[in-house]
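Help wanted!
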Amino acid sequence: MRWSNILIPTLKEDPADTETTGHKLMIRAGLIRKLASGIYSYLPLGFRALKKAEAIVREEMDKVDAQELLLPALQPVELWHKSGRYNDLGEDMIKFIDRHKKEMVLGPTHEEVITELVRNEVHSYKQLPLILYQIQTKFRDELRPRFGVIRSREFIMKDAYSFDRDVESLQISYKKMFDTYCRIFDRCGLKYVIVEADPGIMGGDVSHEFMVLAESGEDMIVKCSGCLWASSLDKAECADKQTNKKNDKESLLPLKEIDTPNIKTIEKLSKLLNVESKGMLKTIIYRSEDGFVAALVRGDFQINELKLSRAIGSLHLKLATDKEIEDLTGAPLGFSGPVGLKNAKIIADFSVRDMRNFIAGANKTDRHLINVNITRDFSVDTFSDIRFITESDTCPKCKASITLKHAIEVGHVFKLGIKYSNRLGAVFLDADGKTKPMVMGCYGIGINRIIAAIIEQSNDKEGIVWPMSLAPVLVYTIVLDPKDKISMKFASGLDDRLRDNKLDSLLDDRQISAGIKFKDADLIGAPIRITVNKDALKKGRVEIKQRRERVSKIVSKDRIFSLILKSCTST
Amino acid sequence: MRWSNILIPTLKEDPADTETTGHKLMIRAGLIRKLASGIYSYLPLGFRALKKAEAIVREEMDKVDAQELLLPALQPVELWHKSGRYNDLGEDMIKFIDRHKKEMVLGPTHEEVITELVRNEVHSYKQLPLILYQIQTKFRDELRPRFGVIRSREFIMKDAYSFDRDVESLQISYKKMFDTYCRIFDRCGLKYVIVEADPGIMGGDVSHEFMVLAESGEDMIVKCSGCLWASSLDKAECADKQTNKKNDKESLLPLKEIDTPNIKTIEKLSKLLNVESKGMLKTIIYRSEDGFVAALVRGDFQINELKLSRAIGSLHLKLATDKEIEDLTGAPLGFSGPVGLKNAKIIADFSVRDMRNFIAGANKTDRHLINVNITRDFSVDTFSDIRFITESDTCPKCKASITLKHAIEVGHVFKLGIKYSNRLGAVFLDADGKTKPMVMGCYGIGINRIIAAIIEQSNDKEGIVWPMSLAPVLVYTIVLDPKDKISMKFASGLDDRLRDNKLDSLLDDRQISAGIKFKDADLIGAPIRITVNKDALKKGRVEIKQRRERVSKIVSKDRIFSLILKSCTST
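Answered by r_m:
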């Protein structure tokens, strides 16, 4: 392929409105262009990288006999009402009214549609287990699209769904997909961590995320320094379930109310009283389906609403409004506390259990209490793990130190169980003659994110450093003087031969300075660069350079093809 | 691939709500399933056929250095206002309001988006010519989705766009695409006709449709029996531009008004007066941007509104309402005529020119005129070709007889010219230092329609008869007794070997009657069927049968693989 026939609009400068290295490089190397907020076009090079990622995904899925199909993006809203997820998706789900006045949905995911399909077509245990997948465009109206194609409103997902007779069989399908995901991401050259994760609105009990470590990642994961434990920040269990007996000895001081005019945050209170935030109680009022909940956590910690929702079994937990707080506590936001609080369930994080003589809101305007103590001053209905882990915590498995890292989620696998098959009626007749709901799993990979993540991980100050497996161009040939017929004949011959061997080749035949060509070669990041110099070629020599190495080699022109082949297969 | 691992829900009976043979077979063979009106899921076999069609399209496009990319389905509405097509698409275009209250469009086609992209990235004649394409899902909210995936609301299109310096260069790109389309449809095994077509809302002057002849086709084409001329019915020029002088001799009879109580149609009038419809004038009142238009055509012909719109240069021609007709003519619908008609432009089809002493509406309730004659009784503002051709016409090129045929449109190529580049500002600096608009072409193929059309053309009463190039299964192996280990071992070995050689193989390992397996094999329509019979296998024999042939052959099991290879490459 010659540069003159293809659209590769490289940019010298970093474009505006780009946040991460990967996003900048994808624009600069001419892989993508923004059409509107969170909506991108893939230009020829970007498209090729996408196709390579897709091909790897497809090959590995097919190896384990997963069946590819294609489901519609347009979905009838009724399925979402049946599954009960219409409200869960909220404004993220794009809806429209069709010309016959029916509400339709643009699929953000396909659990509903696949379950409906399988419900109609699969009726016997003989047809199970079944793994179906598709590589298809999804739509989500993200509140804040960002980081280029990482969080966009239209993206390509490989979504797979497994259907099994029972939980044991699901475990086999889940393991199959889990291992397949490892092979896929390994082949893509990604450095990733597998973490336990919260299933969120997908439902089910068990899920794992495949996280690519990257400074720019918008997700946070927790890793143990001592053992293999890793978790998403949302899901990470805190190690302080056991009480620390040593605090038992501290004597309880008398409860006292103090003046804290306009001091509504832990930070300000800490400054005013010169007390560390861990000596204070944070009280947050929520509203659940069953009434108000006061969630208590140590002042230096943050409440994890996912954990809190699970702890109290609430599906639609919301922060109480300012008005609700005033009505409930008798004081405005910022002065809530558990002492004397009525008509609210009190749930405290384990971190609160060992606190003695602490500071809390007094439920009066501009007033706090000091020397508050559990049992003596108020009762806790339930203790639970309802906070985010921090680097001051230890590993819940082995007590070693832990670190928090930014990451990009590229894959997510879920054991869904019977949530969808129950709600949508996907049942089968088992060998024992009984009708049972199918046991489901679902498995997603963000195809665009594979590309974005590899660029985020694999680059230098000159540009992208593609792994062989995903590189849109494997061999980038620079002809220093495209007017020299001998140079062009040699380069074209090489280009043809590479293409005949299904090796992606780009011949830079532009009549511009060599400097620009070398810069573009590095920016585009092809693993192998060939330079054809008129004078060297006369002596039978050309230059070859690996993108990952600093130095180039001068080699015989007759050996160049076999050298390229060797490089392509060895990396 | 074993049947037990894949989802192929074949049906014995024709499903309800299916209109054509192809639609019925696609459902019965388990290729597709309907999710909602005009919305289909592709099951594994249907998906494989789609992928094969896509691969052929991609290979042929790549051969001529067209560049594949991927544009978003979500499009900002502003581009459609700029191009002026927002209203043209009307309710066919799906629109929604996003969470930030902006109107968005679900792309029914991508002229706007690609022109915007190229406008931003291409600035010099050195970057031209350029052919860009994608294979992508389009959305159109069809008023009447039908014929399965032929007219659906979500479909896969290969859409290509060419950008050239001038009209001469566009001609080269157009020819390149035209020839590529021929190769694509040839490889797909389709029997097709290329016709001149009306560009419709795409704009431009020249367009050709690739039409697959099929009884169930919703489009009509016209073919000459004598020369190569073929046209879409919409576009087909009528041969009667020249007057037929012989009628000149007929003497003009006196104009007379007659009573025709409640006779509002040509048909009823013909019966009442015992006069052939070709002796009557049909007068249809339209409303254009410039006022009313009375369109006249011979009673046995139909007005072609596309031709009429072009003839009078109207973009938004509409039938006049009953009220408008009464106000204009003084009589209700059914009694309009040109005599004495005021405040309307009178445009007559060439077929009217030679009429003598004909019958027309009197512009009075329940009254018609007989012995009407042009010039003596009324004046025509313009004569033009404004009707549909019929089989009573002759070829406009060679005067031979013509036939009308039903067909399915699978491809359409357009010379767009500068319509979009002008409106969206896609200009370039030419070698002469002048800024010029790019000259565009666009080229579409309905990928789903390739599949639907081949099935419509290639089937028998047992099921689909796939061509090798698109068959989702090439070799269908029936194991008569799957409990026999020797049979299964042989069949699995063959299946593995075929798959290793990238030949799609399906092993029917079901524990059901042989009859069902043979029926499914014919229904699914794999080009080659292998039958493994336990007793024959012991003697070293298996059966091979071509789907297209009636008889099977018994051959040595050791020769089976080479025989299959030979069949696959020779067909």
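OP: Thanks! One thing I noticed: The CA atoms of residues 251 and 519 of chain A lie 70 Å apart.
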